[in-house]
Amino acid sequence: MTQRVPRTLRLFLFSALFVCPLLFAPESFPRSALTRAESARDSLSAKERKEVFTRVWKDIADLYYDPAFNGVDWNEVRKKYEPQVTQAQTDTAFYDLIKRMVEELHDAHTRFSTAAEWENREKHQGVSIGFAVDQVEGKTVVTAITPDSQAASNGIAPGMILLSIDDRPVDSLLADAGDKHARNSSERADLLRAYHDILAGSAGSVVKLQLQRADGSTWETAVTREIHVFPPKVLQRRLPDGTAYIRFDEFQSSTPRAFREALEQVRDAPGLVLDLRGNGGGTLASTLQIAGYLLPERTRFALDRTRSGKPVSGFGGLFKVGLELYAGRKGDQIYSGPIAILVRGRTASASEIFAAGMQEAGRAKIVGSQTCGCVLGIIKNRKVKGGGVLEISEMLWLTPKGRKLEGEGVLPDREVRPTIADLQQRRDAALEEAQKSLRNATLRSSQVTERQQTP
């Protein structure tokens, strides 16, 4: 007989058991891991490196959600990489080898982090060049600036086209970055990783940039990469038409409480925009809790599939999660008005589960562009000798109606892609479309009410 677990404890266990961690840095903070001295990293003996290699390969062999390993012969992968372990002269070279091996699975969630990389991720800190870029109209365009950064002081602004980095054309750098890695969960994930690579560098390093202004003129500037800390936070405001706007870039343990407080302040708004365009994911527990504030009753919100085809249990059988996940219950809904959710290629992992669940429940319209398609579940983080951490995809997530999200992502109800002119003019076309959608929804609701009240 399964022991009854109090709801608060279930939420805690759920948060610990199912983690959809950040895939990439939030848009405002493209980053690389902070570096340590090379000598501090070389702490593993040759024997220990072999043990770590074997542990990583075997854990994936035993636990990976797909018994076909995404079409990869995992035994052949071991034969390919194992001889190279003895040739690695430093921990850095060894860890690069481990990462390349794991990348063979073409899966953004199965990955290996060094001790330094994991520490920085846990602290929400990293090295930033001071701005973010994305592909707009086939060009690499600045989309956001980090406040108070050197990039901002130098005059770099959204809508500028990035032409070269350290005298190398951006297109050439992107091609090299793509060649360095195996294919990822989707083309959108590949592009995000490539942009991360070409902007990454150590703190204090200076990078020379060439950009093109709105008038077509080009100019050069130099920017020093800086360390930034970016704790999870929820931003809320009222738009001029009275619509409520809430943005948060992570589904973390602190997010539901902050989101609830923000939602309480705008519960009378005629419409609500949730901006997940920079949301890289987080814990599933937070995802379901936030959805519960927006749903009128218990609603099937997502499906999951495991390698065994059976529900996953944890903590000695104290806690079990079925293959159907539900959010909401009567009395918990805080906001009942129309909702629009903004998404794009940087919307990843748990945020895709949230958007898909709200969309298929008929609770929200999705506006923007196709999401990352990086939607697999990690049950636990596995620490290995030397402090590195292995994350393994042990669950495949599906929408409530059974559509696979991994590789495909969430498709918007209304597709809106920014143009270079939009960025230069500080125009948010997706937000404008979301507001229009909400106004139409409110109008339709009013008309229905009037008809019902007419004798």
Give me some keywords for this one.
alpha+beta, 14 helices, 25% strand, 6-stranded mixed β-sheet, 455 residues
Number of alpha- plus pi-helical segments: 14
**Strand arrangement across the biggest beta sheet:** 12-13-14-20-21-24
Structural class: alpha+beta
List low-confidence stretches.
Answer: 1-6, 8-13, 15-19, 21-41
Mean pLDDT: 88
Number of strands: 24
Sketch the major β-sheet: 6 strands, mixed
Distance between the termini: 56 Å
Radius of gyration: 23 Å
Q: Tell me the overall shape.
A: globular
Q: What percent of residues adopt helix (DSSP H or I)?
A: 25-40%
Strand content: 15-25%
Write the layout of secondary structure elements.
Blueprint: H1 7-17, E1 19-20, E2 31-32, H2 38-41, H3 46-63, H4 74-85, H5 91-103, E3 111-113, H6 115-122, E4 125-128, E5 131-136, E6 139-145, H7 150-153, E7 161-165, E8 168-169, H8 170-180, H9 187-199, E9 206-212, E10 218-224, E11 226-229, E12 234-238, E13 244-248, H10 255-265, E14 272-275, E15 282-283, H11 284-292, E16 299-306, E17 312-314, E18 319-321, E19 324-327, E20 339-343, H12 350-360, E21 365-368, E22 376-383, E23 389-398, E24 414-415, H13 420-424, H14 429-453
Give a written overview of the molecule.
This protein has 455 residues and is α+β, with helices and mostly antiparallel strands. Helices cover 34% and strands 25% of the residues. The chain has 14 helices and 24 strands. The protein has a 6-stranded mixed β-sheet, with helices on both faces. A hairpin with a 5-residue loop joins strand 22 and strand 23. The termini are far apart.
